[in-house]
Structures are given as structure tokens and as C-alpha cells.
Amino acid sequence: MNINRPCGTFDRNYYQAKELYRTPLRKTLLLLFIIGMYTLPLLTGDYGISILTLICAFTIGMLGLQIITGYCGQISIGHAAFMGIGMYTVAIMQRHFGVSFWLALPLAGLVPMFIGMLFGVPALRMKGLYLAFATLAAHFCIVYVISNWRSVTNGTDGMWMKRPGELFGIDFMKDRNYYFLVLTITIIMTYLATNLARTKLGRSFVAVRDNDIAAEVMGINIAYTKIMAFGIGCFFAGISGALGGAYYEYVNIEWFGLDDSIWYLGFLVVGGFGSIFGAIAGATVWKVMDEFSTLVTPLAEMFLGGAAFYASAAFSLLIYSLIIIVFLVFEPRGIAHRWEIVKRSYRLHPFPY
Q: Helix count (H) and strand count (E) of the chain?
């Protein structure tokens, strides 16, 4: 019996072994969770819808970084810049070519994918800290081009974007309907990422991450695997950026600073490396803590008076840093590992060992 199956659940054929969720309980819980996500906007106001939309959009970006770093082991500090490329791709296609959002959205993934594969070439000869500096260079190159190509990107002034119009009678200009769209795309991208991890390419990612020399001895094409990891990860980043920018209907390169890429890596640690659930958990914790810090800031005026204006800017940074430090010390394998421990407690029931 596979230890990942509840006690007494056996794989009797190949099709059962391929299933992501074998037991009726897990299938029911997943269905209830999805229904709950679609129902939440009916129970919350505009503020809640805003948070949920951003969580879904950032989850896609975190899934992309999980593929690059968590699965393939390639450090990337330029992930936020590729999200910016996705945003600007849609904005440029809408402004200069009159392309609709629906046609521009796939390009928002393909353009960062192509550029990410180009910047992934240094990964063939670099590892660790050296690769981190190569992706850092990619970040500054992308920011420089977008900031100075004023005839196309409008420079540092930013660009306006348009949300998708009506489709099948659904008006996506309304926040609630747009959330349903982003949630649906997030579910599809999560499904694709989950199945990617189970394919031959996904197993090659893990083999390269664990030991690239041993992987090459086993016949894995290291160059192809690393470049594909960067390409697929940047595709996810571009889709994430496009969905986030369309929600605000505006895009500015200042939204994708180097600190955002670093926080992505930090909260990937919080969620857990090498786990799709870890990417979702990391993105959720990040955005929830971001909103929490915003709500706590007004309370500073009660204790700090006039100095609250200067101290409030540091609240979010302090909260982020403390969360990451706590997880590095007490749970370095992240929320995903803790969740696995919880599941194992009932999978082997009634056996205590």
C-alpha cells in the first residue's frame, strides 16, 4: 500500500494509481472547498472580493515560482519582473493594436515564457548564488527596458488596461464576476501545475533539483529541463500579472520591485518548497498578512502619535520578516509539511506507527 493513501486503500489498477484523489472523503472535501470559494463573494462585500481576487491572482504567480525553485531547484530573484511583462503585454496589445483581453491573455503568458527561457540559459552553467545574481540581472534589464521604452510602454507613467468585456452575457467589469473569472483560471492553472509535477518532465525537475549530475547520468537532458522550468514558471507569472493588472485596470513597473521577488521566495518557504499546496498557502498568507498590516496601521496613532506616519511604513516589513523567521526556525519545510503530518495522523488509523 502507498503510504500516501489512507489505511486500507489499495491501487488495484493503473487508473486508480493515476487519480489525484482516491477516497470519496477527499473528493467531497475538494468539491465543497471549490463551491465555498465560489460562494464567498456572495457573503462578503467589495473589500472581501478584492482580497480574494488578489489571492487567486498571486497564487498563479507563486505556482510559477514553485515550478522554478521548489521543483527544479533554480533560484529566481526576477519573478516579479516577469509578472510585470505579463501586465504590460496585455496593456500594449490593447492600447497599440486594439486586441481584446481574451486574445491578449495567452500572449501575457507566452511572451514572459519566451523571455524567461532566454534568461534561463545561464542556469545551464550556474548554480546557487551565481544563478541568483543572473536572475537579479534579468530583473534590472526588464525594468530598464520597460521604464525607458516610452513610445510603447509609456515609461514610468504606467498604462491603463481594460478588463474583459461581456462574454455569454456576463459583465466582467463587475468585481464579483471578475473574481469568478480569476478563480476559474486559478483552478485551471493549479490543476495543470499539479499534473505537471506528475509527468515525466515534472519528475525530471525533481531529479535535477536533488542532484543534477545523477539526473544527467540517468539520461535526463539537463539543459532542456532547466530551460523548460524557467519557461513554464514565467508563463504562470505572466498570467498572474495580467489578471492582477486587469483588476486594477492599470499597470506600473513600480509595482514589481526587487523586494516583491524576494518576498515571493520568502513566502514560498512559508508555504513549503516542492508542493502545490505550499504555493497556494504561501500566496494566501502573504496577501492576508498584507491586509492585516494595513488594518493594524491606524492603531499605531493611538500609541505613537505623530510618529505613526513613519512607523506605519515598516509594519508590513516587520510582519513579513517575523513570519518568515518563525517558519525558518520552527517549521523550515513550511505549512505544506505540517499539513502532511496532520493527514498522516488519520491515514494510518487505527495503527499508531
A: 16, 4
DSSP 8-state secondary structure symbol assigned to residue 99: -
Among candidate residues 266, 257, 254, the one with its CA nearest the CA of residue 320? 266
Is it the case that residue 112 has pLDDT exceeding 90? yes
Q: Is residue 338 part of a domain?
A: yes
Instruction: Please tell me the total count of domains within the chain.
Output: 1
232: buried, middle or exposed (CB in 10 Å: 19+, 13-18, 0-12)? buried
| C-alpha angle 28-30-31 in degrees, rounded to nearest 5 | 65
CATH number at residue 173: 1.10.3470
Q: With contact defined as beta carbons under 8 Å apart, do 256 and 112 qualify?
A: no
Among residues 299, 316, 245, 210, the alpha carbon closest in space to that of 58 is found at 245
Q: Which of 183-192, 196-205, 315-324 has the lowest mean pLDDT?
A: 315-324
Q: At 166, is the secondary structure helix, strand, or coil? A: strand
Handedness of CA 169, 174, 176, 182 (dihedral sign): positive
Residue 49 sits at φ, ψ, to 5 deg, of -65, -40
| Confidence (pTM) | 0.89
The answer to the question of residue 108 being in a domain is: yes
Q: How far apart are CA 268 and CA 271, in angstroms?
A: 5
CB half-sphere exposure, 44, CA atoms < 13 A:
17
Residue 213 corresponds to which cell in the numbers above? Answer: 549530475
Q: Which domain holds residue 332?
A: 43-347
Phi first, then psi, for residue 222 (nearest 5°) are -65, -45
Tell me the CA end-to-end span of the chain in Å, nearest whole number. Answer: 15
- Cα–Cα distances in Å, from 66 out to 50, 92, 193, 299? 24, 28, 9, 36
Residue 207, H or E segment: helix 200-210
Task: Please give the pLDDT value at position 313.
Answer: 65
16 in a domain, yes or no? Answer: no
Which residues lie closer than 8 Å to 264 by C-beta, 6 or more apart? Answer: 61, 62, 65, 79, 80
**Residue showing cell 495503527:** 351
